[in-house]
Amino acid sequence: MVTxxxxxxxxxxSAVSRALLARGESVIGLDCFVPYYRLDLKEARAASxxxxxxxxxxxxxxxxxxxxxxLAPHRIDRIIHLGAQPGVRWSIDHPLDYGRSNLTGHLAMxxxxxxxxxxxxxxxxxxxxxxxxxxxxxxxxxxDQPISLYAATKKANELMSxxxxxxxxxxxxxxxxxxxxxxxxxPDMAVWKFTEACLRGEAVPYNNGGRMRRDxxxxxxxxxxxxxxxxxxxxxxxxxxxxxxxxxxxIYNIGNHRSExxxxxxxxxxxxxxxxxxxxxxxxxxxxxxDTYADISAIAKDHGFAPTxxxxxxxxxxxxxYRGWTGV
Length: 328
Ligand code: NAD
Known about the structure:
globular
């Protein structure tokens, strides 16, 4: 089994690649090392995957002819498409960055899947629910009012995928990830930023006085869910799928199914670091949603997804990794 993993130098893509390699499968990891955050971290993640079964392609997937040329010598059995321009806040000031990777790029990946006739799992986001107040968020809920451009591109990915599943009977699975954290995580996200500030004794922006809740999902739980979905693509049987499609296109929430106060995250980080965290209260930021909370009944039913890692376990794991990697 050869899996093409896009975003393989990214947080989730590197973790999924590592798990596939550990199963003895082959991975073609594709990434163009976008300098959105520190590149030494992306290089280190990619280097950690080196070995038998792993091929790294430094390629922009939004460049369709370049993508085709880079992949021409390779067989692919399936695609796990995790490369994207992420970040709600970045999309407020840099909207054009999202057009290439998330719109043109997603289309190029759908075309690749279509021409190779292989199933694809792709990343969506909990941000598609916008400021939805009905909790927990369920895939049956309408998600038509995104409050950031990032979220709008993720919703667009779901719509584009639906068309390809309908027209070409392409098996596609969209996963709405809920705030993923853990070892090898992302420096632009709260768990990293709070840990870094805590260990350095620096103040960290604390938005909306901490009156926010997030469904923090540990990377190992995410990887288990991604692989379960990749192993069982949706059937083309005309039965309605989660998300409402009658084509072979399923959309799932993938979260921890526990919504935590930011204040509790702070307490767990302080305990793991053994120091108090200095908070710098800030107003709510544009594009941010107040609450996220995943209804995971669909992915639990179809794929046996059952997250097992509370933040009391996952955050200390992250802090240990962070200390080892940064030497702080
Ligand atoms: P990440 O930024 O760590 O990884 C994405 C990778 O994609 C990066 O290494 C980047 O260099 C690469 N990339 C971007 N554009 C590319 C292009 N045009 N060609 C080739 N490579 C390109 O992000 P992540 O946290 O691993 O996120 C993976 C996916 O999950 C993304 O689609 C993201 O939007 C989605 N997501 C993540 C979270 C989360 O909490 N981490 C939450 C919701 C959704």
